[in-house]
Design brief:
- This protein is α+β, with helices and mostly antiparallel strands.
- Helix content is 31%, strand content 23%.
- The protein has five helices and nine strands, in the order αββααββββαβββα.
- Helix 4 runs parallel beside helix 5.
């Protein structure tokens, strides 16, 4: 029954590739080799660091342009790597969140990242981010989405400031210049 819902080999391989990438990024100490039609797509050794794993998938330029992030608070801890503002993209596909070792998609976390980069990126530009949140298991409900991509946070209101402040502290460099208001004009009636 499921076979008739499968797409082309290329499309299905893309889904497999993304799933394997996310698994490899989430779990250090695990080596993986992906083979398709007898050809090795990639091989990642178990001893590669997070930056090395990112380089394996996304290239040296991106891996070298990443800044370390870490922080902690009442809600939990955060660590990972984020792109310098010069590495921005036109969509949010390169913003990756891992909660307790599981890849997730969450609009509130994405909004916190966007808010942290607000003074660094022009409108409609998105950063590159690989962020790992470690939270108490009882604060995360993973049974929200059939594919387990979305989760529900018991203390969601505490995660936004954790993510935002951790990224702002790590970025700390030059920001976008404020728009020039132009010359002041005195109007006399």
């Amino acid at each position: 029954a499921r076979k008739r819902f499968l797409k082309s080999d290329r499309t299905e391989m893309g889904h497999i590739d993304r799933a394997v990438q996310r698994a490899i990024l989430a779990r250090s100490g695990v080596g993986v080799e992906l083979i398709s039609k007898g050809r090795t797509v990639y091989r990642v050794a178990s001893d590669r660091s997070l930056r090395g794993r990112i380089e394996s998938f996304f290239g040296k330029e991106i891996a070298e342009g990443l800044i370390e992030v870490s922080g902690g608070g009442e809600a939990g801890t955060i660590h990972g790597l984020v792109g310098s503002p010069s590495l921005s993209r036109g969509n949010a596909s390169m913003v990756h969140f891992f909660v307790n070792g599981r890849f997730v998609q969450d609009r509130r976390l994405l909004a916190a990242v966007g808010d942290a980069y607000r003074d660094y990126l022009p409108p409609r530009r998105y950063p590159i981010a690989f962020l790992f949140l470690d939270l108490p298991p009882e604060d995360v409900d993973v049974n929200v989405h059939p594919r387990k991509l979305e989760v529900r946070f018991r203390r969601a209101d505490r995660l936004y400031p954790l993510v935002r402040s951790s990224l702002i502290s790590s970025l700390g460099g030059p920001r976008l210049p404020s728009p020039d208001p132009g010359p002041a004009i005195d109007r006399v009636r």
